[in-house]
UniProtKB/TrEMBL annotation:
Stored Pfam families: Glyco_hydro_7
EC number: 3.2.1.91
Renumbered residue ranges of the record's region Disordered: 406-450
Protein name per Swiss-Prot or TrEMBL: cellulose 1,4-beta-cellobiosidase (non-reducing end)
Position of the signal peptide: 1-16
Source organism (scientific name): Pseudotrichonympha grassii
Origin organism lineage: Eukaryota, Metamonada, Parabasalia, Trichonymphida, Teranymphidae
Length: 450
């Protein structure tokens, strides 16, 4: 009933068949200049980190936040023994789709476990992620954040994952995009269970504040473009650059781990260059009943402008527009002392912001917008997720952060939520029915999708 593929003596990460893998469909629009759009059939796949991992006799390889010592004494043995299984998307993970709409529910009480949050990727076909080249293009979607309280993050973003999930680069990975493998981002996360087709069991330590997660020796790094991180009280869009192309398994200092005091010494810019309207001086723009009323769905337009206006040009600006109630609403204008009054992300904006806020300018050091554009040339995979924050309670998005700095200091106040808000134990118990709905994804030349 179960199969694992072995090529000679080569060990490999296989897939189980206890649960059929049926990807929820999600259509999107591919647009042309002038606004003519064609519907494209797609689907979404759940990240492998959320999936049941077991051996051929259905014994758990990973349980809670620890690996089985007998099945996973080392990476290669673990990868040989363990299978990644299919997913019951709605019953176990609270993921449902209809036409061009995708809904992610925060807490789902399934038949065998309680699931918290989720992360999915847009598929082109059963074994490949949809790849987007963003330069000189715009990406548009509609989002309903009305059911997301402080401490929650309904996120839509791009990362430079491998199109096939890593199967062509790593022969040990037989699961691939079909089972959601190959994730990476600019935080170089260490909690990824399988990286480059191998179990991340070396030096694995269960997280003390998360009963479902741990950290291994390696991290999974790649450039990340956060189009959307939001709840109903705060939102930001943020590019993060890495100096490596595509997914990269980091080790030691190149991971830039904050806990080791090396946050800015790794291959990725973990801070990024964010545009959060609240943080940039407009506290009445985004929220229930405000200019953008988060009690209602809103359409979000993000434009990636090149210096010469061509697809091959150097990325020079990231613009943001909103559409709600039949009106196009421009992004807020910066209102911070020492900064120019722009309303988009440029290299000048990032340099001025870092200086005004007293932040380390790792964005410039890692290559600025031109560096981001080079990652776009590699191709980007679309990620949609809903999560809470076991590290700092999402305060970096919607509250005062760092909490040891005065709220009056420029850049510290990022949203109206209390510093006591956002603890995962609170949001999981008090807001389990929270959800985010993404719909009407459109992609095409600038000014073609809205």
């Amino acid at each position: 009933m179960f199969a694992i593929v072995l090529l000679g003596l080569t060990r490999s990460l296989g897939t189980g068949t206890n649960q059929a893998e049926n990807h929820p469909s999600l259509s999107w629009q591919n647009c042309r200049s002038g606004g003519s759009c064609t519907q494209t059939s797609g689907s979404v796949v759940l990240d492998s980190n959320w999936r049941w991992t077991h051996d051929s006799s259905l014994t758990n390889c990973y349980d809670g936040n620890e690996w089985s010592s007998s099945l996973c004494p080392d990476p290669k043995t673990c990868s040989d023994n363990c299978l990644i299984d299919g997913a019951d998307y709605s019953g176990t993970y609270g993921i449902t789709s209809s036409g061009n709409s995708l809904k992610l529910v925060f807490v789902t009480n399934g038949p065998y476990s309680t699931n918290i949050g989720s992360r999915v990727y847009l598929l082109k076909d059963e074994s490949h992620y949809q790849i987007f080249d963003l330069k000189n293009k715009e990406f548009t979607f509609t989002v309903d954040d009305s059911n997301l309280d402080c401490g929650l993050n309904g996120a839509l973003y791009f990362v430079s994952m491998d199109e096939d999930g890593g199967t062509s680069r790593f022969s040990s990975n037989k699961a691939g995009a079909k089972y959601g493998t190959g994730y990476c981002d600019a935080q170089c996360p260490h909690d990824i269970k399988f990286i480059n087709g191998e179990a991340n069991v070396e030096n694995w330590k269960p997280q003390t504040n998360d009963e479902n997660a741990g950290n291994g020796r390696y991290g999974a790094c790649c450039t990340e473009m956060d189009i959307w991180e939001a709840n109903k009280y705060a939102t930001a869009y943020t590019p993060h650059i890495c100096t490596v192309n595509g997914e990269y398994r980091c080790d030691g200092s190149e991971c830039g781990d904050t806990d080791s005091g090396n946050r800015y010494g790794g291959v990725c810019d973990k801070d990024g260059c964010d545009f959060n309207s609240y943080r940039m001086g407009n506290t009445s723009f985004w929220g229930p009943g405000l200019i953008i009323d988060t009690g209602k769905p809103v359409t979000v337009v993000t434009q990636f402008v090149t210096k010469d206006g061509t697809d091959n040009g150097q990325l020079s600006e990231i613009r943001r527009k909103y559409v709600q109630g039949g009106k196009v609403i421009e992004n807020t204008v910066v209102n911070i002392a020492g900064m120019s009054s722009g309303n988009s992300i440029t290299d000048d904006f990032c340099n001025e912001q870092k200086s005004a806020f007293g932040d380390t300018n790792d964005f410039e050091k890692k290559g600025g917008l031109s560096g981001l554009g080079k990652a776009f040339d590699y191709g980007m995979v679309l990620v949609l997720s809903l999560w809470d924050d076991h590290q700092v309670n999402m305060l970096w998005l919607d509250s005062i952060y760092p909490t040891d700095q005065p709220a009056s200091q420029p850049g510290v106040k990022r949203g109206p939520c209390a510093t006591s808000s956002g603890a995962p134990s609170d949001v999981e118990s008090q807001h389990p029915d929270s959800s985010v709905t993404f719909s009407d994804i459109r992609f095409g030349p600038i000014d073609s999708t809205y």
